[in-house]
Amino acid sequence: MKSTTSGSFLPLLLLSSSLSLFRPTAPCYTYKDQADSTHATHQEPDPCLNVQCPPGAKCVPKVSSGSLFPGSGPRAECRCPTRCPSYGDDAGSRPVCGSDGRDYTNLCQLRRAACHLKTDIRIKYRGTCDPCAMQPCMEGGVCQLDTRRQAVCRCSTICNLEFKPVCASDGRTYANQCIMEVEGCKAKKTLRIIYKGECSS
Predict the structure, then answer these.
(1) What is the residue-wise DSSP string for 87-113?
(2) Whole-prediction pTM
(3) Which long-range contacts (CB under 8 A, 24 or more apart) does 52-55 make?
(4) Taking all residues of the chain, what is their mean pLDDT, rounded to a whole number?
(5) d(C-alpha 152, C-alpha 147), whole Å
(6) What is the C-alpha to C-alpha distance for residues 155 and 188, in angstroms, rounded to an integer?
(7) Average of per-residue pLDDT across 21-48
(8) Mind listing the domains of the chain with CATH numbers?
(9) Please, are residues 16 and 74 in contact by the beta-carbon 8 Å criterion?
(10) Which residues contact 134 (CB under 8 A, 6 or more apart)?
């Protein structure tokens, strides 16, 4: 009787070979071999795959003597940003407030500081830490932040009731200096004390 054992294994062998093509592989780092005049492309496992860099640092493959990964030793290293590119009017170019309470020109500068100080500095706010610091208000006005953390000058609503009359530059008498300044703020004009006491008629 003729044996069919070898024939039955052939489909299984082909199936096994085809399945091996779909096995997941580790991420690869593609680079050109500078020593090869044909510029053949080689693939190596990404050296930064399992590297944990400190805050603000970035993992980069090490290149030495014109070739990638020469000899033994670490194949990647963590580097701090040496300079911050200009993003124009992009969101990355706008100031940010760090979790350390300091203002940074942009996100790159924050990461650069975190890397050099070896401290985890995160974004606390988009924009400056104290927007009111750059928003002067007229006398009687108070700087407050709106729901978007935008600095807005509003007229104060708190004044004591102490009667210390002053004669203002608009020729009117006010109960005290605070009330004079608030009224000037509401009218959007600056009032000055001409003299203390009621204005003469």
Answers:
(1) -TTSGGGS-EEETTS-EESSHHHHHHH
(2) 0.50
(3) 53/78, 54/78, 54/115, 54/118, 55/111, 55/114, 55/115, 55/118, 55/119, 55/120, 55/121
(4) 78
(5) 11
(6) 9
(7) 54
(8) 58-65+73-83+91-126 (3.30.60.30), 141-196 (3.30.60.30)
(9) no
(10) 128, 151
